[in-house]
Structure formats: structure tokens, C-alpha cells
Automatic annotation (TrEMBL):
Record flagged with keyword Signal: no
Name used for this protein in its record: indole-3-glycerol-phosphate synthase
Lineage: Bacteria, Pseudomonadati, Myxococcota, Myxococcia, Myxococcales
Xref: PROSITE patterns: IGPS
Enzyme Commission identifier(s): 4.1.1.48
Broadest EC class assigned to this enzyme: lyase
Keywords: Amino-acid biosynthesis, Aromatic amino acid biosynthesis, Decarboxylase, Lyase, Tryptophan biosynthesis
Pathway: Amino-acid biosynthesis; L-tryptophan biosynthesis; L-tryptophan from chorismate: step 4/5
Highest taxon above the source species: Bacteria
Domain Indole-3-glycerol phosphate synthase: 13-250
Keyword Amino-acid biosynthesis: yes
Amino acid sequence: MNLLAEIFARKRRELAARAPLSARVRPPGRDFTAALLQRRPEAVVNVIAEVKRRSPSGGPFPHPDLVRVAQGYEAAGACAISVLTDDVDFGGSLEDLDQVRAAVGLPVLRKDFLVASQEVEESAAMGADAVLLIADSLEDGLLREMIATAKACRVAALVEAHTSAHAERALAAGAELVGINNRDLSSLRTDTATALRVMPRLRARARGLVAESGLKTAADFAAAQAAGADAVLVGESLLRDADPGRALARLLAAGDGTK
Ligand SMILES: O=P(O)(O)OC[C@@H](O)[C@@H](O)c1c[nH]c2ccccc12
């Protein structure tokens, strides 16, 4: 038997001998959609809090221990955690996702630039409770397929768009949760008015709406909520603080009219 045939024979044996990856490693799911849609006390918006080591727009952040940051977010009242798993631009990995998820009780969003349904399946197998899909970069047929794959794998799909045209495409492709990214990923320019302008047009048709990027103050949170957001997605402004969890707690307390 030649070498290549031996390798293939071994690979087939190994595959036959092991359980499917998803069945072996996938922990019980956590409901990202429910977390995002939960009703909070008056004037306190749901926050998906993000961990990342660096970003193209923000440079490096002073928090190498993502697990500690995520635990701080949970203690402060975040509704879910977003973990950047892209390596090249954000210094992240699926290992980070795994470690963060094991350390918190909240649903975890895999934030990456996914290009194929296979990666949606792998995200589910690695324990992601939700995946980000970027509508602007995925053509209609592929977007529809990836949303359907997420549904079949029982992971939530947060479908992001930067313009109302792409948000419309997201809805037409079957998106239930739509995120409006205030940051233009091609120029990296951020304008927090973007989500405020686009979300009201989508409110009646999207099950959940998320305002993403560039949000810093309790007033930003309140404005997003008033424009129809169920949740805000926040990273950089928290990660600039020496204690990101405390920064989040402060923002949520400032927005809570009962305190
Ligand atoms: O750190 P900010 O400005 O608070 O933004 C968080 C999040 O919205 C941003 O990281 C993001 C939104 N969509 C993305 C797509 C890929 C990478 C990153 C992103």
C-alpha cells in the first residue's frame, strides 16, 4: 500500500472511531435571542458587552485577560458577551470563545467574518450561542443559506448591516435579529447617528434590533433605545477603562431612573 493510501485509510479509521465533533464538544445552548429581548427596568437597555485584545480602529486594549473582563461584564449586568475570534485584526481565537463561555453564565456571540455555512456549524460545535453575519459582505443566496444553517444548528444569527439597503436584504434573507453597525467597516469611520436613523424603519419587521459600535455614554444608550434598539453592542468605550465591568455598571446605573 502506498503512503497516501495509508494516510487516507488511517483518516477514515479515525473518523469512524470518533463521535461527530458537534455532538462531542457542544455544551448545552444558552438563549441569546431571549437575553437580547428581555425587558429591563425602565430606561435600562440590554448590553451585549464585547471582549477583544485590539481592533483596527482602536489599537491595542490594556486587558489581556479576556476571561476576567467578561466576568466583570456579567457581574455588571450585561445580557450577553461578544467575543472577537478573528486573529489577524483582533488578536482573538476560538480558544478565547471557549474560555470566556466556560467562565460566565451568559450567552456568547462569536464575532468574526464568517464566509461559509460550514463555519456556522463549527461555531455551534465550539459552543457559540450566536454568530455574527455581515450582510454587506455576503451575497443574498449565501446569506440566506447561512441564516438557515444557524437556525438548523440552533444558534442565533445576528445579521449586521451598515446601511438600510443591506438591512432590508438581511430581512429578506430571513434575519430575525438585525444589528446596525455605526462603523463603516470599509473606511472605519463611525457615526452613532447611523443606527438611530436606520432602526425605526426596521422596527416593525425585525424581531430584535441591536445598535452597534461607537456607543460611549448613558445618553447614547438611551438614544438607541428610543430609536427602537432592544440592545446595544459595546466594546471599545468599556475596554478603555481600567475596569471595564465597573465602567459598564456605571453606565447602566446612570440610565436607570429608579436609582
Ligand atoms: O468597540 P465598539 O466601537 O463599541 O464596537 C463594538 C462592535 O460593534 C464592533 O466591534 C463590531 C461591530 N461589527 C463588527 C464586525 C466585525 C468586527 C467588529 C465589529
